[in-house]
Specification:
Blueprint (H helix, E strand, L loop, with lengths): L6 E10 L2 E11 L4 E6 L5 H8 L7 E6 L2 E2 L5 H9 L1 E4 L11 H11 L5 H14 L15 H12 L6 E5 L7 H18 L2 E5 L3 H7 L2 E6 L2 E6 L1 H6 L3 H8 L4 H4 L11
Parallel strand pairs: 3-8, 3-9, 6-7, 7-8
Antiparallel strand pairs: 1-2, 1-4, 4-5, 9-10
Helix pairs in contact: 3-4, 3-5, 4-5
The structure holds adenosine-5'-triphosphate.
Length: 262
């Protein structure tokens, strides 16, 4: 018998303007697993992540997190939920005017921690976990793309989260740096016993880190299974995605931001 899911997404619907982004998306995520979420560019994966931290409310549907439907929560009720979730944004979202140390310490100070020794020890531990000892006084502008991601990750785990959300953690990184980020995702899963949800287009990364994979297609869960099941299927939609093939529809898909004024 399956254990209770840590997060249960039930029949989520969302629209932006007239565009239906999620059309009854459902997904169970279990404690301690790394779930990789695949899907076409512009398909709604980042929008879905924003629902998980309460930055967007669905039109209908539920997100049950540790037994409670968080879609009904107000900002105050969401605060303790957000503390349990570390988010690695696509661009890292570091504060460029702050040192690495201050970036990583930021969530602690935000939550009212004033004891400098506690802050120093936690920042030290978090930077150690992402192999960034000795870089704490650098400014983000002086870091490589991979290092920026690792700083953002240190900030996301400064108070050990129950869940880490990764939005395209290897995008824009070379294969070697991507590999180090993949290893880090795996290592954190083990060290922190954390549940991870990773949005990516990177199939190498997916094969490296996934315990389970879901494919979001046309607003719905098209596939949910193990890597073995993903690679074993002959379903053409999944195969095109896994093998990186475009379809005629993709060639003629409307551009994201058509310049209608011209
Ligand atoms: N704030 C917003 N305002 C208007 N449209 C938005 C907004 N955020 C997302 N969208 C639209 O919602 C759709 C889904 O976007 P989303 O970023 O979730 O896709 P994605 O699957 O994460 O894509 P990618 O893999 O390219 O990052 C897109 O068509 C996007 O243009």
């Amino acid at each position: 018998m399956n254990p209770e899911p840590l997060i249960s997404v039930r029949d989520l619907h969302q629209k932006i303007g007239r565009q239906e982004i999620l059309r009854g998306f459902s997904l169970d995520i279990f404690k301690g697993e790394t779930l990789v979420l695949l899907g076409k560019s512009g398909g709604g994966k980042s929008v879905f992540l924003r629902h998980l931290i309460g930055l967007m409310k669905p039109i209908s549907g539920q997100i049950v997190f540790e037994g409670d439907d968080i879609t009904k929560y107000n900002e105050r009720e969401l605060e303790p939920v957000r503390r349990k979730i570390g988010m690695l944004f696509q661009d890292g979202a570091l504060f460029d005017s702050m040192t690495v140390y201050e970036n990583v310490a930021f969530p602690l100070r935000e939550r009212g921690e004033r004891n400098e020794k506690v802050i120093r020890d936690k920042v030290h531990d978090a930077l150690g976990m992402v192999n960034l000892h000795g870089h704490d006084q650098k400014m983000p502008v002086n870091l490589s793309g991979g290092m920026r991601k690792r700083v953002a990750l240190a900030r996301a785990i400064i108070s050990p989260p129950h869940v880490i959300l990764y939005d395209e953690p290897t995008a824009g990184l070379d294969p070697i740096v991507s590999d180090s980020i993949n290893r880090l995702i795996r290592r954190l899963q083990k060290q922190l016993a954390v549940t991870s949800i990773v949005v990516t287009h990177d199939m190498i990364s997916c094969d490296h880190i996934a315990d389970r994979v879901a494919l979001l297609n046309e607003g719905k869960r098209y596939f949910h299974g193990t890597l073995q099941e993903l690679h074993g299927t002959q379903d053409p939609v999944i195969r095109n995605f896994v093998d990186g093939k475009s379809t005629d529809d993709d060639d003629f898909a409307p551009l994201d931001s058509p310049n209608e004024d011209n």
